[in-house]
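Justification of computing resources. Each target in the renewal requires a structure prediction run like the one illustrated here; the chain below, 440 residues long, is used simply to show the kind of job we budget for.
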Amino acid sequence: MQNTGARRRLTLDRDVEVCVIGAGLAGLTAALELSRKGMSVAVLEGRHVGWGASGRPLGTVMPGYGLPVNDIIARVGFDNAREMWALSRQGANYVRHIADKIGPELELSYGALEVSNVDIGDRLIGRLQMLGEDFGTEVEGWQVDHVRDVLRTRRYFHAVHYPGAFQIDGSKYLHGLAAQAEAAGARIYEETPALSIDAAGIRKRIVTPAARMRASHIVLAGNVYLGGPSQRLTDTLLPVWRYAAVSEPLGDRLAEVISFQGSVMDTDDIDHFRIVDGDRLMWAGPETTWSANPQRFAAAIRRRIRTVFPALGRVELADVWSGVVGQTVHGMPQIGQLRRGLWVASGFGRQGMSATALAGQLIANGILWRDDRWRLFSPFELVWAGGRAGRVAGKAVDVWTRGGAAAAGALARWRERAAIREAAREARLAAANRQAGTGH
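Resulting structure tokens:
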């Protein structure tokens, strides 16, 4: 299904019903759904399909958003939060449906584990009840011993297991999605950036380097790459580069340390890893608010792997890469209609693949059937991200979060060791009393 040949540039003026700007996961989903219903769709991509973070996602698909569910409830109310969560599940099911059509080369694996680096036993019960009973999500609570049976490290305590979550090869999924959109009739133009947009009137106008396009609807799905054509929208996103790597084959020693075959992420969103190709470890962790050579972070990723799993020893990396995502100030994606005929699907940093799928579906349904469920996301309006000062502040918050998580984890492990020592002391005292025959 992957299109390995270069797609042509737009060189002739065209009139279409929908122009999608950005050939990432959200834009291609909207293009596919609209084309399937018979609409004429053109996708303009400034570089090539999947140029941004969509080109090589970690491939974890599960319900939920980057913002904790309690914060969503506080913002939109319980009923709306539950409906938004249902849409997230729908997005995950959509990805699975498309993945089944693409074929077995996506290498599906199942299960996702959200682990905590602090002891959250009491809080875990309430969260499981909310997700399972109130939000209809298949979840399991794992105790510390169970977690450490599958992840041989003392750094993790309790976990929430999502057995219905799954992992796919994200790059192959993206290109399969593009191929399906083209098969349905969408035209994808690469190396065709949108230089300017005039969204006034019934027929909107888009100017590219070599041609012009007119459309009844424009879908802005270019994330942080939109720039000049919609600078106001771009300024609401904090660009974050996340760095990831895949190891050289690790053989049997990987299975001895990590036997869980799904994705693992910590509750502080610092580390995200999973096994790929049987005995390789894929790991994402470091972040910056500026672009840098990914190779600069290879040593940091190796150190992080050794910190969490010292039993693995030295891990050599086969490849290191980065992808830039746009994060919103409020932590939720931007989905909906900005003005008549002008749509946005953006801000997917920390949201996962299910959010991109539901965004494409909501916008397609809004255009086709005037389905207004996208209004559920209206309370999370466009908020300026602070420009250069916002990048500095974002980096400071990231450092603070990681430092706080490290301190909390160290304290939790110290308390655990202290409890073990105290239990051992009590056992020795009891044994001495029995031996002395005091009975006390």
